[in-house]
Design goal:
This protein is of the alpha+beta class. It has five helices and eight strands; from the N terminus they run ααβααββββββαβ.
């Protein structure tokens, strides 16, 4: 009869041989080698969030916005234009499959993320905004604003939050 140590070692080895679910899902959604980058459909992760390679500048953010599914892409373009009008010298990047906006390319004041039924704007120092965005976070300083498909955007309020957030030291990410 095998001892407990050999049984546990066998279970650990079997577990290590299996890919994690997130890795398996990414592999299943990865484009095949014969798909050209220009003609390939963007990979959508859980909740419909586009999978875009990490990058700095406008190009990766525009790729993310173009890959946002359905109505979210139009809203993404409106948000990006509003951010650019409000903070013309804003820096942009895509990290962790989310567009980020900041002032120095090192710290970020705003992030955008797609979920199945809404777009989440993450104001990383949102608790300091007046008035603070309505959705609380587990993180002490962050506040969120959710945009659903048929919502009417109050662009004046969004611009006020964006302007205030750009003037507060951001989060290093």
């Amino acid at each position: 009869m095998p001892d407990k140590t050999s049984i546990n070692s066998t279970k650990i080895a079997e577990k290590a041989a299996k890919p994690r679910k997130s890795v398996a899902r990414k592999l299943a959604n990865a484009p095949s080698k014969d798909q050209s980058a220009a003609g390939a459909e963007p990979t959508l992760l859980s909740g419909g969030n586009p999978q875009i390679a990490k990058g700095y500048g406008d190009a990766p953010v525009q790729a993310y916005i173009a890959a946002m599914p359905g109505w979210k892409s139009d809203v993404g373009r409106r948000l990006d234009a509003l951010i650019m009008r409000t903070v013309p010298d804003v820096q942009k990047a895509v990290k962790w499959n989310s567009p980020l906006y900041g002032m120095d390319g090192q710290t970020w004041f705003l992030g955008i993320h797609c979920f199945t039924k809404y777009i989440k704007l993450a104001f990383f120092r949102g608790a300091s905004l007046d008035p603070p965005p309505p959705v609380a976070s587990k993180m002490e300083h962050a506040r969120y604003f959710h945009i659903h498909e048929n919502d009417q955007l109050d662009e004046a309020q969004l611009a006020a939050w964006i302007k205030q957030a750009s003037e507060i030291p951001g989060e290093r990410m």
